[in-house]
Amino acid sequence: MAQTTPNHTQSVVGWAAHDPSGKITPYIFKRRENGVNDVTIKILYCGICHTDIHHVKNDWGITMYPVVPGHEITGIITKVGSNVKNFKVGDRAAVGCLAAACMECEFCKDSQENYCDKIQFTYNGIFWDGSITYGGYSEMLVADYRFVVHVPENIAMDAAAPLLCAGITVFCPMKDNNLIDSPAKKRIGIVGLGGLGHVAVKFGKAFGHHVTVISTSPSKEKEAKELLGADEFILSTNAMQMQAGKRTLDFILDTVSAKHSLGPILELLKVNGTLSVVGAPEAPFELPSFPLIFGKRSVKGSMTGGMRETQEMMNVCGKYNITCNIEVIKPDQINEALDRLARNDVRYRFVIDIAGGARE
Predict the structure, then answer these.
(1) Per-residue confidence at 257, pLDDT binned at 50, 70, 90?
(2) How far apart are CA 299 and CA 61, in angstroms?
(3) What is the value of pTM for the model shown?
């Protein structure tokens, strides 16, 4: 393992954290030369994910400093390797959480690379050549083309960036539960109205379903209904509302990353309903047995998505004109943005204008 290997000859300007204080500062580092399977991408925008906070502060004890975060990347391809298919110079491209996988296991062969045992991530991972991966808080990226997707021409590059994490994370459980092309209108619930939840509401409405937002924040009701088009809102701290909502939902997507009990949420599901969890609280979930058993309900997890699903998700966003609601910042505002994100003070995703004036 090394920060770079001999083929890392390209100097790149980026922004990195160097210790658990999490403070981001300008950082010049090396990227590899464009290989036969690689594309080089001039980064225009990079979203800020809650995962970035955990990595810069080493909350999970796995950070390899210096860490250059960022796995919600959009930009323009400037170079392609000789083996690259389906990409050319000038294409609008995007990179999400995945940088490498074994490409040989059952999951990789089924384009579920995100579940490969040898998966490596866009930052704070170990690439095939043994180097540490650096993410999208930088001006340029070299990526294996098999982990790159196209951005539809009709959606803005800045608002598309968070789709590479938030979008795919909520899209996959909806697809797994047959909500994308379902001829029947379902009643679905979205727990939490943040970076993931607001995109999930947009997907749910685009797919023709009845969408209920479930939140601990009364102020989110107006946003959910008037801004995002949700049909109903349940304040989860209101016992009467929760009682009235019992056994009314076919499917619930839980996007909350704070500690909470799954019991009251399960009670909102119909018999045979499914709760899919994509939020990752640091403390274990509370999962009472009775709401699970007496409703014949299922609890599932889901993590991002494979590359085929990611391109499908981007195409769906192009079809329905779905993007994220964002606040665009400059690189010198990253620390302020990370602090605000930790306080949930953003509607609904920060995106860094990496190019600083360059546009698609």
Answers:
(1) confident
(2) 28
(3) 0.93
